[in-house]
Amino acid sequence: DAGVTQSPTHLIKTRGQQVTLRCSPKSGHDTVSWYQQALGQGPQFIFQYYEEEERQRGNFPDRFSGHQFPNYSSELNVNALLLGDSALYLCASSLARQFNEKLFFGSGTQLSVL
Amino acid sequence: AQSVTQLGSHVSVSEGALVLLRCNYSSSVPPYLFWYVQYPNQGLQLLLKYTSAATLVKGINGFEAEFKKSETSFHLTKPSAHMSDAAEYFCAVSLNTGGFKTIFGAGTRLFVKA
User: Which residues contact residue B84 at a Cβ distance below 8 angstroms, ignoring those fewer than 6 apart?
Assistant: First the structure.
């Protein structure tokens, strides 16, 4: 049973460019959450997708957008990259109906903006 | 805003010594609380979660945490540290804001000395 998979594992971009990160949730999971983890900090909630819609959003600008596909996989898009966007981006999956259920995390995509 | 606060960004213990990692939460309703661990270059994995069934929660790898409502705390402990416990530990709270999202503390890095 595959867990949460993310691609790519590493990415280098320059300021002003756009990037797309991808996530496949754990089999059977229908909810995908995205987090940004800067070096030495805890994961910061970006947004959550369920039934192909953004259900909740953290305190991130509109440059951060996402999508969820019918197979529950998800993409995170970041436009007009800034140096401060350099971070580890984590995807986590869960089941929407299980309120107190744990999150399953992928290993993340390390984004470096030069 | 509902959140978690982890006291101490770094904790160092000797192998075999008691591990104590502190977490305080702020919540106006009974919270769903978690501890996650992150090893280098990996995503987060669940150590344990508070489900309100018992105030003392046992997790994997010999860790446990006690929920104390009067102190709004959920500290993580392990009686005897092992070298393999060296990692980053995150306390987290799951919030119901029209759907559940998980918010993480800033993390505590645990160092284990031989």
Answer: none
Closest-CA distance, A84 to chain B, in angstroms, reads 18
Amino acid identity at B27 = S
Query: What percent of chain B has pLDDT above 70?
Result: 94
For residues B105 and B112, the answer to whether their CB atoms sit within 8 Å is no
Q: Exposure of A97 by Cβ count < 10 A (0-12 exposed, 13-18 middle, 19+ buried)?
A: exposed
The rounded mean pLDDT for chain A is 93
pLDDT at B44: 92
B3-13: buried (b, 16+ CB within 10 Å) or exposed (e) per residue? Answer: ebebeeeebeb
Cβ-based interface (< 8 Å): residues of A facing B: 4, 33, 35, 40-45, 48, 50, 55-56, 58, 90, 92, 96, 99-100, 102-103, 105-108
